[in-house]
Design a protein that fits this description.
With 582 residues, the chain is of the alpha+beta class. Helices cover 31% and strands 25% of the residues. Bound molecules: adenosine-5'-diphosphate and magnesium ion. The site of magnesium ion has 5 residues, from helix 2.
Amino acid sequence: MIRILDKNVADKIAAGEVIDRPVSIIKELVENSIDAGADSITVEIRNGGKSYIRVTDNGCGIAGEEIPAAFMRHATSKIEKVEDLDNIETLGFRGEALASICAVSRVEMVTRRAEDRKGTRVVAEESEVKDMRGTGCPEGTTITVRDLFFNLPARLKFLSSDASETRRITDMLSRMAMSYPDIRISFISGGKGVFTTSGKGNFLNNIVSIYGAETGKYLIPVTGDEDGMVLRGFVSNPSYTLSSRNRQIYCVNGRVVSSDVMRRGLEKGYRERLMQGRFPVAFLFLSVPGDTVDVNIHPAKKEVRFGDVFRVEDFISEAVARGLRGEEGVTRAVPETGPAEVPKLTAKPEIREEEKQVDIKQILSTVRHENTPQPVVREEPVEIPPVRKEFDFDSLEIRGTVFNTYIIAQNEDSFFIIDQHAAHERIFYEKMKNQYAASEKLSQQLLTPLSIVLPPDAAASEERWLPQLRKLGYGAEFFGDSTYLVREIPAFTEVEEAEDFLRDFVASLEDRIDVTDRKAIDRIIMRACKASVKGGDRLEPEEAVSLINQLKRCENPFSCPHGRPTFIRLRKYEIEKMFRRV
Ligand code: ADP
Ligand code: MG
């Protein structure tokens, strides 16, 4: 039998589409506050928002006689006619949020417009206004939502623990606060302040207030300008990483979005600088011409689609790599614990001037793109050159070695520990890769050839692997049975290193790995450098100097190919701090 659902059931079903957990209520309420022009918003929750949510703003308020309508489905003040849909400038326009929220919880609203002497207090429950009366109250709107899903026990059961609902809310509000630096956003959970932003429009301050001063200390500025794309932001020094991508914030034309393209660009930029399973912190603000991006305003998730994904990815990865290759990118001497997963309330944001060699506020104020509908920074753009100071290898003075493993060096303001094994791996890796790519091979003849024994069928498929060996600088010839003699090895390789390498290569053939594949070759090269110079080999002073000089010529000098740092830096003032001199 087909029947028309009664209003109550229909409302609950519709509500379920908009509201699935506390975080979606908060998102809707905060967006309403933003739409109402508020520049100060306070969000308070208890039990991960399940029992209590309160959002207070200083926005335009609602006229008493319009309140019942605000709670009705498809009731909105934001659009009137179909054409308006093409020029929406508000975050909401469907007129569904308040109706949905009050279908599944107990809502109280207190609101007053600036022009009214008296405000209004409304109590609504299960889609019905239960009580409404005049009241004295501050300008703006406060909405309290209690007992979420009290009338939908099945949904209530579906919610996660208080802690994990809180985490979702913290994450969403942090992103929101990053998007709206001009709005003071304060978040209180279980009676404790989680964060409060200043609303003064300064990004670095915002990052510090939301994510803590600790995070702020390890950020490196990243800048890029190309074909109308502008990138500004911060990424963490490789010494400061997380076990998840939780703290990567991407903003496109003023909107916080999720973007696989930007994430890939970021991670490519860090290539070989991080160990497997570690993720950088990043705040990247990208501004692109409006016609090259589609920011889909899906109610739950903001996905962006770029016209030319590879261009955007490369643009970001190059900017990040540049930042990491510069002065600030040298791995710092800090325990790699990473930031706490939930941001703490920071008493006083404090960033040392020495650590920020650039005026970040000034950089970020250029983020704005002429035709972005919602500018990231509502300040006048300032033209400044991209900041990048190259690391000066020549300024290093080598002071000796310790434990036969680490080279100790210094320059004017820093103390460095260089892992000779990691450094050598890096050098060896890049030499091998360059050798492979070069048309002319740098080889040396061996007086006593090395012999390698290959799997039985290898001779028959010689044309698949012999040219690859040759490309790497190894000259081998058939000797008999499955044996080959190697008379030529790369010029920069020790005989033992060559033996290790060949053993690996033969093992790959035994494993039937297709060595004509570039990726397989990369893996073989990668494995080969593990074997190169071990820690514990004593280096003569001139060998240490030569190692540093070779590192200087590397494309990616600050980490070994597996992501371990080659360099650790301790700045002079950090040492002074440890000794309580400053
Ligand atoms: P929408 O945001 O899609 O218009 P909502 O259900 O979220 O729909 O809100 C309905 C209406 O209630 C809004 O159009 C707005 O006029 C009013 N409103 C909601 N929240 C606020 C607020 N915090 N301040 C002022 N007006 C608000
Ligand atoms: Mg809304």
